[in-house]
Specification:
Number of domains: 4
Shape: globular
CATH class of the largest domain: Mainly Beta
Strand order of the largest sheet: 7-6-3-4-5-9-8
CATH architecture of the largest domain: Beta Barrel
Helix content: 10-25%
Radius of gyration: 27 Å
CATH superfamily of the largest domain: Trypsin-like serine proteases
Largest sheet: 7 strands, antiparallel
Amino acid sequence: MKTLASFLRHRISISIIAIYISGFVAISAASLPATVDGQPLPTLAPMIERVLPSVVNIATTGRIQVQQNPLSRDPLFRDFFNFPDIEPRERRTNNLGSGVIVDGDEGYVVTNNHVIENADQINVRLHDGRVFEAELVGADPEADIAVIRIPAEDLYGIAIGDSEILRVGDFVVAIGNPFGLGQTVTSGIVSAKGRSGLGIEGYEDFIQTDASINSGNSGGALVNLNGELVGINTAIYSGRGGGNVGIGFAIPVQMAMRLASQIVEYGEVRRGRLGVIVQDVTPELREAMEISVSSGALISQVLPDSAAAAAGLIEGDVIINVNGRAIAGASDLRNVIGLSRAGETVQIEYLRNGELLVKSVEIRAAETEISFDSSSSKYLEGATLGNAEQGKAGVVVIKIEPGSRASKSELREGDLILSINRMKVDNISQVEAVVAQSSRGLLLQIRRGQSVLFLVLR
């Protein structure tokens, strides 16, 4: 057994050796050799030099309306206090971000919707210093993807990689315009895949990376070591003090390009709809319903006249696979179906009473408006709702039938419904899902003119 003295002598000797070695490394680092065993030192420089021309800096200017005190917009209040008519006030906005040239021949650039949102003018600076005013082709706020087009020649379109084969631990490089500094390159690894349920976007299937991503990197490129695009940098997780803490998120390139192709073709994303309300398979549900799998999307309701109803899916079925992709939970299914076009046929594997079944289901187009009656919602009976204008959040009240239950509430035509029962709603499908699960009334958050208020429907 070693004595305390011999142990300390042993530790001191190790410390001296460690100091000596670290000093040697520090000295040697100042004069690194050009080669090691006849091989050049590894560097990402050739790949970066090849990719940089395909990443652009984006600067936008726009206007947003400034909210005012609701009393100042009340006609009775203005008349009583002799207030002059007040025009809505606007504030100029400026935003910086990044983008990726995905089609050099046509000038198409993919970026995030939040980079160009509310923009009156979009300026794109290329790697070679040229600046162009871009045209907005279209955007998808739910997935935070936008496509712009620049009238430029000699553009370098990036090579498109495969985000499906990325593995946790693969090296990746983020390229963007953080804080408006200009093109900046950072490196890291893929920390996780399939991140969802973060509440950042409506559709989430993020690649998580520790490559440094900061304000202004949004819309930039996440590339693999071959210089192929594997993701669009979108968001970061900030600590209490703000800033980057080593957790960044990128939209997988397969998801981004599928959405971008629809935006280029239609000017918008035309999502498909399965017509089910689903929930995660929890341990409690698994035991109570004798479900033999620990993951999947449990169908709690099949909406009438939907693709799911036509295919014969029923409540209690557990969807475990769509087109060869395993479904971990409700958000997974929503992402997969949300990326499918109307009219597309998908292969769905599901469990029913312990039996594995497979069906081909033709996805139907998501409705752009819906009318409620007493069978679909007694609280909204008589109201017709529709999707808001492209780029705007919420659903709009199109019509209210006279004498209906909705007409007796404070809901008005033209109101923009932002959330129902504190759940954000951006389209008709989301409204249907929330309303179908509401049995004790609805709490609506609406925008009316420049005011935002809550309404309770019972």
